[in-house]
Amino acid sequence: MNRRTPAVPLLALLLALALLGTGCTGGVEGTPGAAGLRDPYFPGLGNGGYDVTHYGLKLDIGPAADGPRAPAADRLRGTATITARATQDLSAFHLDLAGLDVESATVEGRPAAVNRAGKELTIRPAAAVEDRLRKGRTFTTVVRYSGSPQAITDADGAEEGWLRTADGAVALGEPTGSMAWFPGNHHPSDKAAYDIEVTVPEPLTAVSNGEPVSRRTADGRTTYHWRTTEPMASYLATVAVGRFTTRQSRTPDGIRLFTAVDPEAAARGGSALTEVLDEIPAVLKWSAEKFGPYPFTSAGAIVERTGDSSYALETQNRPVFPGPPDTALLVHELAHQWFGNSVTPRTWRDMWLNEGFATYAEWLWAADHDGVPIGESFDEAYADDANWAFPPADPPTAADLFDAPVYGRGAMVVHRIRLALDDDRAFFALVRGWTKAHRHKNAATEDFTAYVEKATGRDLTELWDAWLYGGSRPPKEG
Ligand code: ARG
Ligand code: ZN
């Protein structure tokens, strides 16, 4: 130590004390993270200032009241442990949660202030831990919550969120339902790993995404622990609670398979259902040849009763089907594992990249297995007026995100690229290159058009203008 300059450390000490007095230890004052990510359709969805890397969800599920007639999965008590990296110096941040009561929250182990305004939770960490939320640092938030989770009616009238079934519940979330059962950054641009532990009363089973880690039973209640290590968008998270017949196996390529079938769906589906589910390995193998290596460790299916949900969803690893699916629907939902689940839309405007490719997968399957030439599928879609209501790259409102043009016209865009290349080997190499370039990431429409132009070395402006962005039906020739 230099004894000749005692004034310097003294000044430093005074300065540090002054800064502490303002609650600012590093000279930079944190600011609150944004309450939304300005999605074109849902501006308030998601939150700014942080990036979730892992959700640890512990859900205790049971009947709201005792007695044999009480619905089995009406009450939820949850603990969400959210690990996130700050992308700015944060003084506070938001989480999305619909319904349910927040009991408490901590950030970095210290009690945090929680403010609730509709679906927005504002979490304000204790001043003592604020420096742990500096840009680039990883911090942990724990939210304890409970209540009776609700169904959410989408803009298009579909029901999602927490859907009660005859013997339990199923959670579905495309586009906004996942906030009905856990707090988080509910926008597709923030993908994360998950550990989902669900405790249910016997004899119910809880099925979720990823792979099973453990199963423990105590006092008539069983905890099922499922782990998803590959990044997952929150709209693809699911929990299905009910009586299920479950099966585990492996494809010849080593992909782990888990299927769960509601007994009533099994009775209704009969041997046809068994046959469809037995096709999963072949569909995965065929898809991998077309689209590139399967992006996940495990696959499978959850088959609910007809009417338990208003739509099938490509929930990660294992799609949920409302009733026994046919092969075309199975092919569609498994194709989403590449298009949507691995390569995820950047915003909800990029939905056609999911549905266009999944629909095209159905056309490809029909061409390879059912003798339906791809040109016939294209012609049928082309002739259908419903596909021309709006351009796939720009659905007018949130109510149109799942309308015919996003599916049928989206698939037509893909086929027009194939026709423009006039070389099937080059076309499928292009498709595999696309899933490889954006594997486990997000991509927007502009990323796709730029990718195709770069990979082919061609200016495809006319194709995009006519088929992707144009307001009217272009001529088939030209
Ligand atoms: N992505 C689902 C499919 O495989 C459809 C989801 C529909 N969601 C809705 N809110 N309508 O086609
Ligand atoms: Zn789809």
Automatic annotation (TrEMBL):
InterPro entries in the cross-refs: Aminopeptidase_N-like_N (IPR045357), Aminopeptidase_N-like_N_sf (IPR042097), Peptidase_M1 (IPR001930), Peptidase_M1_aminopeptidases (IPR050344), Peptidase_M1_dom (IPR014782), Peptidase_M4/M1_CTD_sf (IPR027268)
Superkingdom of the source species: Bacteria
EC number: 3.4.11.2
One Pfam family, short name: Peptidase_M1
tRNA processing listed as a keyword: no
Domain Peptidase M1 membrane alanine aminopeptidase: 329-467
Cofactors: Zn(2+)
Substrates-to-products reaction catalysed: Release of an N-terminal amino acid, Xaa-|-Yaa- from a peptide, amide or arylamide. Xaa is preferably Ala, but may be most amino acids including Pro (slow action). When a terminal hydrophobic residue is followed by a prolyl residue, the two may be released as an intact Xaa-Pro dipeptide
Residue span, Aminopeptidase N-like N-terminal domain: 54-236
Stretch forming the signal peptide: 1-27
One GO-annotated biological process of the protein: proteolysis
Family: Belongs to the peptidase M1 family.
Name of the molecule in the record: Aminopeptidase N
Species in which this protein is naturally found: Kitasatospora albolonga
Organismal lineage: Bacteria, Bacillati, Actinomycetota, Actinomycetes, Kitasatosporales
